[in-house]
Amino acid sequence: MTDADALFAPLAADAVPAVSRLAARCLAADGGLPLAAGEGFTARRYAAEGGLAIGAYDPDGTLVAAAAIRPTGGTVTGTALVDPAARGRGLGVAALDWCLGGADVMETESLTDGAAALFADRGLTMSFAEDVMRHDLKEIPDVPLPAGVRLAGWAPDTVSRFHAAYRAAFAERPGFPDWDQEQWTGWLVDDDFRPPWSLLAVDASGADLGFVVCGDGWLVQVGTTPAARGRGVGAALTTAALRAAAADGASEMLLDVNVDNPVAADLYRRLGFTVLGRRARFTRPASAR
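Above: the chain's sequence. Below: its structure in token form.
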């Protein structure tokens, strides 16, 4: 046992607010998903049913590191946080090694070079990563719709068309879940879903060329059908959604883009999005489990 190991103890059930404050300090230094500092988010990881969590406190009572493991489907996933002011003391190594005592997957909402090196040292490989991007709605570029293209909104009689556009746009993507309409809308439509910001691009013949769906503060998905790519449809849909959000009083919009989709990432950068940070998941090889 190292000195860092000795600092950890089981995390109390009422520690979620302290974990959220720790997550906020990590996000301020490392970037990443702003929602990751919310108490609902941290509770699902550090106070999950069937999970375990540990924490380390400085003498003044400040939580400076936390780690947790929880069941996730057919595996166990771990996550950890170390206060930027407490790094270099072995806390991250101790937290990761504790997690790997029960988890085969590690996730992070703010990937740093140091964390990536530590995961690699323990034999983990990155199985998923996406960049979190932000757009300040004070400045939205003017991107006109292509000639002959119009917009249609989310409505009961267009939901099936949105779903068809979703399937056509993403069917070739690795890991595409191929959800049916009920599964997709069940995942998409919640209290934060914003129908007025969700749009279809339709050509003069009535064919749907692409779609964008939005939640409160989020561009959830943007996609264009294969035949419509390269015509500016995706850019026009994105900026139309940004303008709709701004008209309703939103000040910013966020999105996630997978690191294996550089074409989309480049488009978002050209439209004024900036990267806040990177989320990632690392997996231990089956031979090491």
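DSSP finds nine helices and twelve strands in the chain.
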